[in-house]
Amino acid sequence: MQSTPSTTEFDLIVVGAGAIGENVADRAAQGGLSVAIVESALVGGECSYWACMPSKALLRPGIAMRAAQAVDGARQAVNGTLDVPAVLRHRDEVASHWHDDKQVKWVDSAGITLIRGHARLTGTRTITVESDGTTTAYAARHAVALCTGSAALLPDIPGLAGAHPWTSKEATSTQQIPDRLAILGGGVVAAEMATAYATFGAEVTIIARGGLLTRNEPFAGELVGDALRELGATIRSGVETTDVRRLESGAVQLTFDDGTTLEADELLVATGRIPHTQDLGLASVGLDNGDWLPVDDTLRVVDGSGAPVGDGWLYAVGDVNHRVLLTHQGKYQARAAGDVIAARANGTAVDDVPWGAHVATADHEAVPQVVFTDPEVASVGLTAAEAEKAGYRTRVVDYDIAGVAGAYVHREDYVGKARMVVDEDRGVIVGVTFVGPDVAELIHAATIAVVGEVPISRLWHAVPSYPTISEIWLRLLETYGRP
Ligand SMILES: Cc1cc2nc3c(=O)[nH]c(=O)nc-3n(C[C@H](O)[C@H](O)[C@H](O)COP(=O)(O)OP(=O)(O)OC[C@H]3O[C@@H](n4cnc5c(N)ncnc54)[C@H](O)[C@@H]3O)c2cc1C
Ligand SMILES: NC(=O)c1ccc[n+]([C@@H]2O[C@H](COP(=O)([O-])OP(=O)(O)OC[C@H]3O[C@@H](n4cnc5c(N)ncnc54)[C@H](O)[C@@H]3O)[C@@H](O)[C@H]2O)c1
C-alpha cells in the first residue's frame, strides 16, 4: 500500500455522497466554502439506487393498475395483468441502471470536488481516503460532515446470516421475482415490498412478530394488512423466528418458536437499520466504532454529556445520526447543516433558536412520512398515543374518508380513514394520519398546519375544493366542532 505525504485541504469535507451528503455539500458550497465529498460506492447513495426510488418504481405500476380497475369505464380498458418484466425495466430506468454519471455531473456543476474511495477519520478535522490500494490524507479547515447513512440490520437469529437472505438492496434491485417470498419484519420496508411482490404474483408471507406498521396509528396496520391479505399475502404475527437455514433445494426454511416452519424461495430481512460507522475511524476522535452519532439541533456530533465533540467541528447528518431515517427529513437537516457550517466558517450570525434557519426543529414533532402501500399511509407529527405520552391534553378526531364526495368520485369502493390529534390547550393540531388510496399528496397540507401551529379556528377558513378528497379536512373540523 502506498501513502502520499502531502495533505490537501478543503473548508469542509463531507463523507458519503448520498442525497444527504450532496445537500450538505451544496449548501456549504453556495455559502462560499471549498467543499470535497467522499464516496465509496455510487454518488446518490441508497435512495437513488436501492431504496426510495427503485422501491416506488416497483410499487407504482400495480397501484396505477388497481386504481384504474376500480373505476367503471376505465376498468374495461385495463383487463390484462401486470407486465412484470416491463415493471422491472421501468425500475431499472428509475435506478439509472445503477450508474451515477448524472449525479457526478451535478456534483461537478455545483463546484464540489468528488473524491472516490473509503474515508476514515484520523483525528481532529483530518481523514484518509483509501482507493485502489492508495491511501491519501485530507484535512478540513472548518468541518467534517459524516453522512454515511445506514445498512440493513440482520437480527441475531441462528443460521440467518449463513442462509444469505435478501435485504432491501436485493429486493429493490432483483431481476428475478421469487415464487415464494418470506419477509421478516413488520415495518415500512416489509409492508411496501410485500405489496409489490404480492402484486407480481409471488406467494408472500410476512412474519411480523409485533404486528404491521406499529409506529403508525393502529388503523394503518389494520387497513394495510386487510389489503395485503386481499392480494393473497399471509401475515403471521406473534411468532418469533428461532432458526433459519438454506436447504439443499435452494429454498430457505424458517423455524418459529411455536414449532411450525415455513419454506420460501427467498427471505427478505426488513428488521431495521444499523449505522454505517463500523469502519469510519471514529475511535480516533474518542467515539465508538459502530455507534449511531447523536447530534444537537445544528447537527454537530455530541458526546455523552450532550456537548459538541471537540470545538464543534464534527457534524453527522441523515440516517447516521438516527434522528429520522427518511430522505426528505435528512435533506432538511442537510440544508440546516450546510448553511450553519458556512455561517460558522464565515463568522456570520448563527440562527439556532427553535425553528431558526440553522436548526432541524421539525425532526422532533413534525416529521411527515408516506408509506407507499395500497392503501397509502400518510402521516405527520404525533400519533394519539405519542401525544398522550408526551403529556398533551389531546382530543382525537376520526373520520371515514369514504364519506367524502371526492373519495366517492375517485373510486366507488374507497376505503380509508383519517385521524387528527388536537392539543386542546393550544387549539392546534399535533398529528394527522390519512390511510387510503392516493392520500400521499394530502399530507403536506397537514404538515403546514402542524409546523405553522395554525389555530383550529383559522383552519375553518382554509376551504377545500369540492369534490376533492381534501374535503376530509372539513369533515374533521365539523366533527371536532367550531370553537
Ligand atoms: C427499501 C427502502 C425504501 C425507502 N424508501 C424511502 C422513501 O420512499 N422515502 C424516504 O424518505 N425514505 C425512504 N427510505 C429511507 C432513505 O433511503 C434513507 O433515509 C436515505 O437514503 C438516507 O440517506 P443518507 O444520505 O443518510 O444515507 P445513504 O443514502 O446510505 O448514503 C450514504 C453514502 O455514504 C457512503 N459511505 C458510507 N461510508 C463511507 C465511507 N467510509 N467513505 C465513503 N463513503 C461512504 C455510502 O456508500 C453511501 O453512498 C427507504 C429506505 C429503504 C431501505
Ligand atoms: N416510504 C418510506 O418512507 C420508507 C420506505 C422504506 C423504508 N423507510 C425507512 O427505512 C427504515 C428501515 O425500514 P425497516 O422496515 O427495515 O425498519 P422499521 O424500523 O420500520 O421496521 C422494522 C420492523 O422489524 C421488526 N423486527 C425487528 N426484529 C425482528 C425480528 N427478529 N423478527 C421479526 N420482526 C422483527 C420490528 O418490530 C419492526 O416492525 C425505516 O426507518 C423507514 O423510515 C422509509
TrEMBL record:
The UniProt record gives the binding positions of NAD(+) as G185, G186, G187, V188, V189, A190, A191, E192, G272
The intrachain disulfides are C47-C52
Query: What keyword terms does UniProt attach to this protein?
Result: FAD, Flavoprotein, NAD, Nucleotide-binding
Instruction: Report the GO molecular function annotations.
Output: dihydrolipoyl dehydrogenase (NADH) activity; flavin adenine dinucleotide binding
Please list the residue ranges annotated as the Pyridine nucleotide-disulphide oxidoreductase dimerisation domain: 367-473
Enumerate the SUPFAM superfamilies for this protein. Answer: FAD/NAD(P)-binding domain, FAD/NAD-linked reductases, dimerisation (C-terminal) domain
Give the domain of life. Answer: Bacteria
The protein's name in its UniProt record: Dihydrolipoamide dehydrogenase
